[in-house]
Amino acid sequence: MTNLLQGKRVFVTGASSGIGRAVAIGCAQHGADVALNYGHDEAGAESAVREIEALGRTAFAMQADVAEPESAGRFVGEAATALGGIDVFVNNAGICPFHGFLDMPVDTFERTMRVNMHGAYFMVQAAARAMVEQGTGGSIMAMSSISALVGGEYQTHYTPTKAGVLSLMQSTAIALGKHGIRCNALLPGTILTEINRDDLADRQKREYMESRVPLGRLGQPEDMVGPAVFLASDLSAYVTGAALLVDGGMFVNLQ
User: Fold this and answer.
1) Angle at CA of residue 74, ends 122 and 51, nearest 5°
2) Apex CA 115: angle with CA 8 and CA 218, to 5°?
3) What's the average model confidence in pLDDT over 191-206?
């Protein structure tokens, strides 16, 4: 394994499972020390920490609800103290409780907005402040989604948040470029995680979704590691404000 991230300090939100966990461990495999934020899955976070430490890297984990704005400064501050600074921030935490539009509960809509959009805003802001104070630049990336580009019948509360995250990365790329901070969005397609486990338990639906992917399969969390490592590393030194679609070709498959 190449050490593309040797010496870098990477912070990842929503890192106890799914894409966040895969990215956190993948960054450690490339030489990074990693700070993990998690919401509720303490066992998952602890096991991720053990895997990172087994690679000879330093790991730090903190429980914090990203929907609470004060969590952002607390996580970034304590993680930066533990790792000695921050070089890369990955905003990954998100939820998608599938529900119809006409009877969408207000609390479901508002919770999704607070976690996915407000959480991204305040976490990215806290990371950016730390990077500016540090004075050495950095890389910020956020997990948007293919859902930023297309609709979903049971995702009317979710798709706007992912479009918002994409827009946030475009605007922060402009705001933070003068500080040497790059901001980019990753747009996963259908990745098999806890967020869609129940939705894809329907065999017919899963087979249909697979049939839409030119590469012939749905994504795994590990499929997001390479793109994330690229954006975290110096290989992407002139990449900012970009949106990288990682979907096996699903988006372009109109027929």
Assistant:
1) 100
2) 75
3) 78
- Does residue 121 carry a catalytic annotation? no
- Round to whole Å and give the CA distance between 115 and 118: 6
Looking at residue 1, its pLDDT comes to 59
Cα-based distances in Å from 156 to 114, 122, 176:
15, 23, 31
Q: Which of 84, 175, 64 is nearest to 125 (CA)?
A: 175
For residues 112 and 159, the answer to whether their CB atoms sit within 8 Å is no
Known active-site residue 158: yes
Distance, CA of 38 to CA of 245 (rounded, Å):
25
For domain 9-246, give the CATH number: 3.40.50.720
Q: What CA–CA distance (Å, rounded) separates 14 from 240?
A: 23
Q: Which residue among 139, 158, 233, 236 is the active-site one?
A: 158
> What CA–CA distances, in Å, run from 95 to 14, 62, 162?
10, 19, 11
Q: How far is CA 165 from CA 42, 145, 159, 187, 191, in A?
A: 26, 9, 10, 10, 18
**So where are the chain's domains?**
9-246
From CA 121, how far away is CA 167, in angstroms rounded? 11
Given the residues 71, 145, 147, 236, the one annotated as active site: 145
- pLDDT score recorded for residue 87: 98
Q: Examine the residue annotation and report whether 178 is marked as an active-site residue of this protein.
A: no
Q: H helices within the chain, ranges in order?
A: 18-29, 42-54, 69-83, 106-113, 119-134, 159-176, 203-211, 225-232
Instruction: State whether residue 63 is helix, strand or coil.
Output: strand
pLDDT tens profile 113-167: 999 999 999 999 999 999 999 999 999 999 999 999 999 999 999 999 999 999 9
Alpha carbon distance 106, 220 (integer Å): 32
Full-prediction pTM beyond 0.90? yes
